[in-house]
Amino acid sequence: MERKVTKFGNSLGITMTNALKQIGLDQGDIVSIDVCQDTKEIIIKKSTKVALSEGVSADFTDTLTEVMEKYDHTLRGLKDR
Fold first, then answer.
1. How many other CB atoms sit within 10 Å of the CB of residue 20?
2. Chain centroid to CA 55: how far?
3. CA angle at 31 for the pair 45 and 57, rounded to the nearest 5°
4. Residue 17: closest CA among 36, 1, 35
5. β partners of residue 13
6. 22: part of which helix (H) or strand (E)?
7. 20 to 30 A Cα–Cα from 49, which one of 25, 32, 37, 65?
8. Residue 79 to residue 77: CA distance in whole angstroms
């Protein structure tokens, strides 16, 4: 799928309604955006953050999320064993 970068007010953007629907996103959903400078890729994922249980710090969940995202491929491979 190719899209043209256009101007929205003072910002640049693209429309990608069909692509977002394919990954289950809808208006109001929160996304995580990662930019890889080496490959010039942008990765958009539906946010997986949830409400914290009492006593669980935001730092813990942020670190856990980072580790899970970093080792996502490895963890998925372990699941299939």
1. 16
2. 26
3. 105
4. 1
5. 6
6. helix 17-22
7. 37
8. 5
Model pTM above 0.70: no
Q: Rounded to an integer, what is the distance from CA 64 to the centroid of its chain?
A: 15
SS (H, E, C) the chain: CCCCCEEECCEEECCCHHHHHHCCCCCCCCEEEEEECCCCEEEEEECCCCCCCCCCCHHHHHHHHHHHHHCHHHHHHHHCC
Q: Which residues are bridge partners to 44 per DSSP?
A: 33
H or E element in which residue 6 lies: strand 6-8
d(CA 26, CA 38): 30
Q: In which region does residue 41 sit, left (phi positive, over 0), alpha (psi from -120 to 50) or beta (all else)?
A: beta
pLDDT tens for 13-57 read 999 999 989 988 888 888 889 999 999 999 988 887 667 778 888
